[in-house]
Fold this sequence. Notes:
The protein is mostly helical. The protein has helices at residues 20-44, 49-54, 58-83, 91-98, 100-104, 119-143, 153-184, 188-194, 199-205, 207-214, and strands at 15-16, 196-197. The protein folds into 2 domains: 18-83, no CATH class; 109-217, Transmembrane di-heme cytochromes, Chain C (Fumarate Reductase Cytochrome B subunit), CATH 1.20.950. It binds protoporphyrin IX containing FE (HEM). Protoporphyrin IX containing FE binds at residues 17, 26, 29-30, 33-34, 117, 121, 124-125, 128, 174, 177-178, 181-182, 188-189, 191-192.
Amino acid sequence: MSTAAATHYVSPDAIQRYSFHERVMHWLNALAYTYCLATGLAFYTPHLFWLAVMLGGAPTSRFWHPILGIGFFIAMIWMHVVWRRDMEITETDKRFLSNVEDYATNRDDRVPPQEKYNGGQKLYYWLMYYGTFLLLFSGLFLWFPEYIAFSLAWVRHLMIVLHEIAALITIGGFIVHVYMSVFLVPGSTAAMIHGYVSRAWARTHHRLWYIRMTGGDPVGKE
Ligand code: HEM
């Protein structure tokens, strides 16, 4: 493990969770999604139109929303190339998901040890991955109505509904993701900023990954 770059932020024996590459990829993805979310909500209801006003006005938001949407799609594909193996659903994840109330109610002794990501994190990943395709597919119809299904109003209406359903599904996942990683699991946000977690964090939340990274150090150091 290279700790030289981490010593300014964390203890020297911290474990690297995210490389610089992964952090840039994640935050570009988050930026593109958040922009599309804010402008999309402004188009959805007049109550949230102020979001478009704050982001430069309605024409600016309408211009950039689909372009940042393509940016989000590209960032998601990038994420898929880098993380898809880590995100494969295993038997442990199925057990985690079928007993997720133990995790939610802090009955930690009943939660099976987790790899680098737990079943819930993986589920979020796949939800965003497939959601991105749905958003792109339906979004293209709304972006170029004069070229795609021009004479078929029902297709355009269907695509509007599909775009909204896909957006609502990803928004649900996004809210849980931000809440969990920023507020519920302290240390996660720092990991996505400087890349490192303490041994105690890794041992507590992702014990199988911790064992893999440290060779099974049973005590660990802070
Ligand atoms: C501003 C919005 C966002 C914030 C504050 C945020 C925060 C974080 C944090 C702190 C982690 C580290 C969690 C850990 O290591 O356990 C993380 C991981 C991750 N983020 Fe985000 N994120 C945001 C948006 C997004 C978006 C839009 C995606 C779209 C796919 C995404 C996908 C992921 C994935 C797949 C992981 C790894 C697995 C997981 O922790 O769920 N994030 N995020």
